[in-house]
Design a protein that fits this description.
single chain, 166 residues, alpha/beta, 5-stranded parallel sheet, 34% helix, disordered N terminus
Length: 166
Amino acid sequence: MTTSTSTGSSYEKYVKTHSDYDKTRMAVGSEQIIHFLHAQFPDITKQPRILDAGCGTGVHLHALKHAGFDLLTGVDASRTGLEKTREKLGSDAQLVCADIRSLPFAANSFDVVLFSFVLQHLPHQSEDELQRATQAVLDLAASVLTPGGHVVIVTCTREQMSPDAG
């Protein structure tokens, strides 16, 4: 497996793929995420602070905004992805260019951290290395969550990622 630490991905060159990303990607699971968030935060006047870690081109942030969530932050290592996110959301979200392996936020900054189809991109040479990298990212996410906060993960199997088998 080729590692590209400059983009934060093991196998994608985001500068290239993010320019056409929205043609093949959608906010998979957004209905379930929104339902879960409304159940956890029923008083919409007390908005949860949501971090989309590895937000890509902002498809989930866009869905969350349209569902009534306003305190949105997106982090991605790709400036191209963040530019696409800004096109969708204007100034309705704070966007930060950073790697999810080193989130630049203080403790207790968020009520929810969302990882959608990003954890499998962590640079790795083996499954063991991916497991360690994933655990480190989840530990970091826990450090920026408020007590009782939520980590939401949307992911898929290796077979589902395959254009032949998925």
